[in-house]
Amino acid sequence: MDFVLISQMVAAAVAATLLYTLIGIAPGTDETAVLAPVTLVLVLTGLEPIVILSFFIAAIVAKKLTDSIPVAVAGIPGGVMAAPMVEHALVLKEHGRPELAIRKMVSGSVIGTMVAIPVSFLFARILAPYSEVVGSYANQLFLFGAILLALMSKQRWIALASIVPFAILIQGLRHLYWGVGIVPQGTNVFVSFFLGITIGPVVMTLFELLNGKVREKLPRYDKKLITTDRNNQYQGIPNPFKILTTQELSLSAVTSFLGSLLFFMSPVGITILLGEFVSGFVKDPVKKSSLAISSMDGLTNAAYLSGTLIPLVALGLPLSPVAIGPANALFNAPPVFTEDYNLHHILSTYEFVWATLIGAAVAILLTYFVIVKYAEQICIFVFKKVPHEAMIGLFFGLVVLLAYMDAGWINIAGVMLIALVAGFLHRLGVNYGVQFMVLYAAPYIIQLLTR
C-alpha cells in the first residue's frame, strides 16, 4: 500500500464516521437500511475494495457508538440493535443518570471493538482451511440458516411457513424477467431484491397510509418534550478503562468474545441473552443497568464486526445475519462483486487487517471523545435539525434507482411487491435474517420442489 491509498482509506473512514455519527443519533434508523444501500453504491462506483472496507468498518463502529445516545436521552433506540438497552437506560434516566448511561454504553462499545477485531481474524484463520468444503455446501447452508434463524425467532412457526412462499415469489419474478427478455436467461436479479427486503417495513407503512380509515385510527402525539442538562460535561480525557468498573470491563470483554464466536447467530438475540444473563446476578438497579448496557453495547459492536470479518476473510460467503444483511454488498454486488469474486478473493489478510484497523481507529478517535464530552448537545441538534423522514426518503430513492438499473421500470414494481411482502412478514415476526437467507437459498429451494 502506498501513501495515496492509505490517504484514501483514512478519508473514507472519516467520511463514514461523520455520516454515521449523525445517522446513529437519529432515532429509529435500521442498521441494514442505512448501511447496505450506501455500501452498495460505493461498490458500484468502482472504488478500491480496500477503501470500501475501511469505509464500512468505520461506519459500523461509528453507528454502534452513537445509536445508544437517543436511548439514554429520550428512551428511543437509535437502531434495532439498541432496542434491548432501552429498559436499562430508562432505569438510569429515572435515577437522574442519563449521562452515565451514555458513557457506559459508548465505553462498552469501544471494548467490544477492541476484543472483536483480533478474535475475528484469529477465528477466520482457523476456519480458512475449510472454506472450500463450506463453499461446496453453500446452498444447503443458506437453507439451513433460514430454518435455524426461523426457529430462533419469537414467531418461529410463521417464519418457517414463510420460507417456501417467499422463495417462490423471488424466483417467480426472476423467471418473469427472463420470460419477457428484461434480463438474460440465468442472470439473477439480486441487488434490488435485497434492498426491497430492507425497506419492506417502510413500504408497508407507506401503503397503509394511503388507506383513509387506517390513517384516522393512527394515534396523534404532540411534540415530545425532552429535557437535558447542557452543562453536564465529562471532565478530563475520556478513557473507557476508567469509565467502566472492573466488573463492567471484564464482562464487556467476555460477552464481546462470546459474541464474536457466535457470529453466525442473530446479533439481537445473543445481545438480549448474554446481556441479561451477566447482569442478572446484580440487585442494585443502577449497577445492574450499568452492567447490562455496557456489556450489551460491547456485544453488539463485536457481533457486527465478527459477523462481517469472519465470513469475509475465511469463507467469501455471507454466512451470518450481518454478512447477509448490512455487509452484503461486500460479498455480492453484481457486476462488481459476486460470490465467486469479492473482497475475500481480492484482498490479502494483511490488507484486511490494515483496512479494519484504520476504519476502527478513525471512528473511535473521532467519535468516542466527542460523544462522551458532548453527547447531549449533539443529540439535541440531531433531534431538532435532522428529519428522520429525510433520511428514509434518501435511502428509498437509492433503492428505486438501483431497481431501475437492475431490470428497468418493471423491476421497480417487482421490488415494491417484494417490499410489501417482506414488510408484511416482518410485521408478523419474520426477521430480516430469515428473509435474506431465503433470498440466497431461493434457487435451491425451487430446485428441490421441482425435482
UniProtKB/TrEMBL annotation:
<feature type="domain" description="DUF112">
    <location>
        <begin position="11"/>
        <end position="430"/>
    </location>
</feature>
<feature type="transmembrane region" description="Helical">
    <location>
        <begin position="432"/>
        <end position="450"/>
    </location>
</feature>
<feature type="transmembrane region" description="Helical">
    <location>
        <begin position="134"/>
        <end position="151"/>
    </location>
</feature>
<keyword id="KW-0812">Transmembrane</keyword>
<feature type="transmembrane region" description="Helical">
    <location>
        <begin position="352"/>
        <end position="372"/>
    </location>
</feature>
<dbReference type="InterPro" id="IPR002823">
    <property type="entry name" value="DUF112_TM"/>
</dbReference>
<feature type="transmembrane region" description="Helical">
    <location>
        <begin position="158"/>
        <end position="177"/>
    </location>
</feature>
<feature type="transmembrane region" description="Helical">
    <location>
        <begin position="249"/>
        <end position="274"/>
    </location>
</feature>
<feature type="transmembrane region" description="Helical">
    <location>
        <begin position="68"/>
        <end position="86"/>
    </location>
</feature>
<feature type="transmembrane region" description="Helical">
    <location>
        <begin position="106"/>
        <end position="128"/>
    </location>
</feature>
<keyword id="KW-0472">Membrane</keyword>
<feature type="transmembrane region" description="Helical">
    <location>
        <begin position="189"/>
        <end position="210"/>
    </location>
</feature>
<protein>
    <submittedName>
        <fullName>Tripartite tricarboxylate transporter TctA family protein</fullName>
    </submittedName>
</protein>
<feature type="transmembrane region" description="Helical">
    <location>
        <begin position="6"/>
        <end position="26"/>
    </location>
</feature>
<dbReference type="Pfam" id="PF01970">
    <property type="entry name" value="TctA"/>
</dbReference>
<keyword id="KW-1133">Transmembrane helix</keyword>
<feature type="transmembrane region" description="Helical">
    <location>
        <begin position="393"/>
        <end position="426"/>
    </location>
</feature>
<feature type="transmembrane region" description="Helical">
    <location>
        <begin position="38"/>
        <end position="62"/>
    </location>
</feature>
